[in-house]
Amino acid sequence: MKDFLEYVLKSIAKHPDDVVVVEYEEDGKKVFDITVHPEDVGQVIGKDGRTIKSIKILLSAMADDSDFILKVIR
User: Fold this and answer.
1) Concatenated DSSP letters for the chain?
2) Which of 72, 22, 30, 24 is nearest to 52 (CA)?
3) Strands of 20-26's sheet, edge to edge?
4) Could you give the CA distance from residue 67 to residue 48 in angstroms, rounded to a whole number?
5) How far apart are CA 36 and CA 27, in angstroms?
6) Residues 6+ apart with CB under 8 A from 18
7) Which of 1, 21, 26, 32 has the fewest CB atoms within 10 Å, i.e. is most exposed?
8) How far apart are the first and last CA of the chain?
9) What is the predicted pLDDT for the residue at 67?
10) φ and ψ at 46, to 5 degrees?
11) Which pLDDT value is given to residue 73?
């Protein structure tokens, strides 16, 4: 799931080399910390959060448990 998330984010970002995804568990949920170049934050989140919501829907469709959190750090 992490690899797919990185692939999607690198496809969206203008600076794909700066995309970093860190996966860890917190309170029984998977958490993905997403770090991108400051110029790419808007691209990743999208207007009204549409892009990041769509990414979450894609990840939910491919995951066994859809209990996870996406955090855009930068």
Assistant:
1) -HHHHHHHHHHH-SSGGG-EEEEEEETTEEEEEEE--GGGHHHHH-GGGHHHHHHHHHHHHH-S---EEEEE--
2) 72
3) 20-26, 29-35, 68-72
4) 22
5) 25
6) 35, 36, 37, 40
7) 26
8) 21
9) 81
10) 80, 170
11) 85
Render each residue's pLDDT in the chain as its tens digit; 74 residues. Answer: 899 999 999 999 999 999 999 999 988 889 999 999 999 999 999 999 999 999 999 998 887 766 888 999 87
What pTM value is reported for the model?
A: 0.87
β-bridge partners, 25: 30
Instruction: Find the length of the chain.
Output: 74
Q: Please state, in angstroms and rounded to a whole number, the distance separating the CA atoms of residues 36 and 18.
A: 5
Token pair of 42 as six digits: 């808007």
